[in-house]
């Protein structure tokens, strides 16, 4: 039996931007297929190859803005139900996290919600905070790396690409 | 193979009978607590038998689980030793042990330095931890409520107790710590329906001085959807390409977070 490939991350923290880009179907942002990367990370978590963490604040932030077309109740409910998945571990926004966020805002000059995500990642002792957000990426914290998400395992994406390639080849043969 | 060695360190002829008796009593309750966390059986410590007793510069008791086909004894041995080591070295609450179990740890390590007991050593097949008076100082920091807040915990509801004030234990999703949740007797059927399932308990959360959730009062219980009934990654990913109204994710976030 083939061994499962090792994941790139051990305990990644996902900023809201990862979920937003994923739901928003961003398949080509400067040549990066964000949806495929997020699919890969979430599938790796579902398969138990890594544990993903995020803040309870993420549930509130992944929504549709008031001046745009509203998220339908069905879509909103589906998203909320998805966030009950056991492979996503939530860090509650409680006093200790909020106090740490306050200090991080002072230390790094970041905004409160950014501070909440950063302090949540540190509270969960994550090894990396993943975000598709340039401003967040500029924060240099001694305790945790902050970087853009990358393919964590690759197996699923490669499988899909190979299946797609096989399909194309089949078409050519016909 | 399950093996748990408990060693009371002290010069021969100095360890008093009450100290020995108290240590053994707390020790067996700790084993029972861990055993329950994995076996879900109230038989607890009675499943464990004495495999060896010796007094050779220290008092040694070696216990083994009588039946261990499911590997429960190995897990109990590992978590008992690593858990006590965590209390000694890190001063934090280990996974799986309940508040009642922690009180037994408190009773156990309090004996160190009295009744002729100079220290304790706990040992499994693969690991060994030495307990000192530091463990006693540490555990005292983990039991009291430092502050309360309205909030919630999430995890699997795995034990219901009607002894004294009715309560159930939720093993926290993220930390695997056992958190005690009190409930009203009239809510028993609702609690029973949630046994073995992932739940969210919203109520008055008690925190210890180390910032760990230790119990929930006036908890409002909600069963979280079984994984097989929740939307899949394939169903949600890319499901709303108009979510950000055409903005980039970064611009969208800056609009809702400011900056």
What is the N-to-C order of secondary-structure elements of chain B (H for helix, E for strand)?
Answer: EHEEHHEEHEEEHEEHH
Uncertain parts of chain A: 156-174
Low-confidence stretches of chain B: none
Per CATH, the superfamily of chain A is 5'-nuclease
The helix/strand class of chain A is mainly alpha
Q: Which bin fits the share of residues in helices of chain A?
A: 40-55%
Helix share bin of chain B:
25-40%
Task: Give short descriptive properties of this protein.
heterodimer; A: 174 residues; mainly alpha; Rossmann fold; three-stranded parallel beta sheet; two-stranded parallel ribbon; 8 helices; 5 strands; 49% helix; 10% strand; globular; B: 259 residues; alpha+beta; five-stranded antiparallel beta sheet; five-stranded mixed beta barrel; 7 helices; 10 strands; 31% helix; 30% strand; elongated
Structure description:
The complex is a heterodimer of chains A (174) and B (259). With 174 residues, chain A is mostly helical. Chain A has a single domain (12-149), classed as 3-Layer(aba) Sandwich (Rossmann fold), CATH 3.40.50. Chain A contains eight helices and five strands; from the N terminus they run βααβααβααβαβα. Chain A has helices at 16-23, 34-46, 56-61, 73-82, 95-108, 112-123, 134-137, 155-173, and strands at residues 12-14, 52-55, 88-91, 128-130, 145-147. Chain A has a three-stranded parallel sheet with strand order 1-4-5. In chain A, strands 2-3 form a two-stranded parallel ribbon. In chain A, helix 1 crosses helix 2 (34-46) and helix 5 (95-108) packs across helix 6 (112-123). Chain B is an alpha+beta fold and 259 residues long. Chain B has helices at 17-39, 72-89, 99-109, 133-142, 188-193, 233-236, 249-257; strands at 4-9, 48-55, 58-65, 119-123, 128-131, 147-161, 167-172, 178-182, 198-207, 213-223. In chain B, helix 3 (99-109) runs antiparallel to helix 4.
């Amino acid at each position: 039996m083939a061994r499962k490939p090792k994941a790139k991350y051990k305990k990644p923290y996902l900023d809201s931007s990862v979920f937003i880009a994923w739901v928003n179907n961003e398949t080509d942002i400067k040549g990066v297929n964000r949806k495929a990367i997020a699919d890969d990370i979430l599938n790796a978590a579902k398969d138990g190859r890594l544990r993903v963490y995020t803040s309870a604040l993420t549930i509130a932030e992944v929504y549709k803005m008031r001046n745009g077309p509203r998220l339908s109740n069905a879509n909103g409910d589906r998203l909320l139900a998805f966030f009950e998945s056991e492979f996503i571990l939530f860090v509650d926004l409680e006093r200790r996290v909020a106090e740490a966020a306050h200090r991080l805002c002072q230390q790094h000059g970041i905004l409160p919600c950014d501070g909440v995500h950063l302090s949540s990642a540190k509270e969960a002792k994550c090894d990396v905070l993943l975000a598709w957000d340039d401003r967040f990426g500029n924060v240099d914290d001694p305790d945790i790396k902050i970087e853009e998400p990358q393919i964590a395992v690759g197996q699923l994406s490669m499988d899909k690409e190979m299946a797609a390639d096989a399909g194309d080849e089949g078409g050519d043969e016909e | 193979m399950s093996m748990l060695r408990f060693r009371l360190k002290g010069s021969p002829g100095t360890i008093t009978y009450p100290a020995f008796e108290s240590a053994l009593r707390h020790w067996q309750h700790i084993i029972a607590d861990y055993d329950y966390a994995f076996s879900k059986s109230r038989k607890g410590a009675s499943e464990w038998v004495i495999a060896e007793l010796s007094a050779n510069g220290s008092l040694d008791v070696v216990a083994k689980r009588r039946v261990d086909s499911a590997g429960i004894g190995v897990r109990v041995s590992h978590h008992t030793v690593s858990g006590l080591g965590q209390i000694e070295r890190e001063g934090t609450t280990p996974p799986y042990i309940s508040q009642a179990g922690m009180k037994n740890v408190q009773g156990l390590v309090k004996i160190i330095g009295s009744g002729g007991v100079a220290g304790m050593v706990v040992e499994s097949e693969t690991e060994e931890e030495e307990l000192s008076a530091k463990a006693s100082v540490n555990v005292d920091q983990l039991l009291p409520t430092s502050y309360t807040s309205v909030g919630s915990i999430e995890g699997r509801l795995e034990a219901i107790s009607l002894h004294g004030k009715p309560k159930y234990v939720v093993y926290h999703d993220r930390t695997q710590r056992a958190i005690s949740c009190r409930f009203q007797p009239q809510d028993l059927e609702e609690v029973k329906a949630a046994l073995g399932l992932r739940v969210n308990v919203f109520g008055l959360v008690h925190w210890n001085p180390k910032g760990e959730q230790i119990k929930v009062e006036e908890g409002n219980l909600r069963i979280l959807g079984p994984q097989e009934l929740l939307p899949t990654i394939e169903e949600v990913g890319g499901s709303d390409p108009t979510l950000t109204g055409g903005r980039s994710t970064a611009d969208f976030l800056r609009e809702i977070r400011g900056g």
